Amino acid sequence: MVDPRISHIALDEATILWRNADIEQERRIAIFDLIEENSFRPLRASAAGHGGPYRLRLSVSDGRLVMEIADEQQQLIETLVLGLGRFRRPIRDYFAVCDSYYQAIRKASAAEIETIDMARRGIHNHAAELLLERLDGKVETDFATARRLFTLICVLHIRG
Are 3 and 51 in contact, with CB atoms under 8 Å apart? Predict the structure, then answer.
């Protein structure tokens, strides 16, 4: 049976040094939403007869995103390694605007919060497009899945 989706996702907790309550909430929501609805078909694994669902483990090593893709029996199918150089600025910008957003929620007007949230969504959408480009030819996925994966990539970059 073919079921091209992520059924389980884990982050390398050793990569994450610290996260505040706001970031932890973002992580929980991204994982929940991702598991609820996603499209994920690793092309090499699919060609080799693995139809999914997939278990995904994300980590960062030497400035690269490591995506370990396993089957439901937790047998590693393949490992994708993506350079993150093009994501440095979107990650930095996303953290900055998220910080502004969390501060605004506590004391700003609705219009100010909406403006910051629009900027946050814009950065997030741009980064999701970049991720789709980097996954092209490796993994077929959709925009919503790429967007949620970018959130998790950001969580892996928290340094305190």
Answer: yes
Q: What's the CA gap between 8 and 5, in Å, rounded?
A: 9
Tokens (6 digits) for 14: 């050793």
Tell me if residue 136 falls in helix, strand or coil: coil
- Provide φ and ψ at 64, rounded to 5°: -125, 145
CA distance 88 to 159: 13
Which position has the token pair 């789709």?
A: 132
- Please, are residues 157 and 91 in contact by the beta-carbon 8 Å criterion? yes
Q: Which strand (E) or helix (H) includes residue 96?
A: helix 88-107
138, 80 in Cβ contact below 8 A? yes
Work out the pLDDT band at 103, boundaries 50, 70, 90: confident
b (16+ CB within 10 A) / e for 79-102: ebebebeebeebbebbbebbebbb
Predicted model pTM:
0.91
Query: Two tokens at 86?
Result: 């093009």
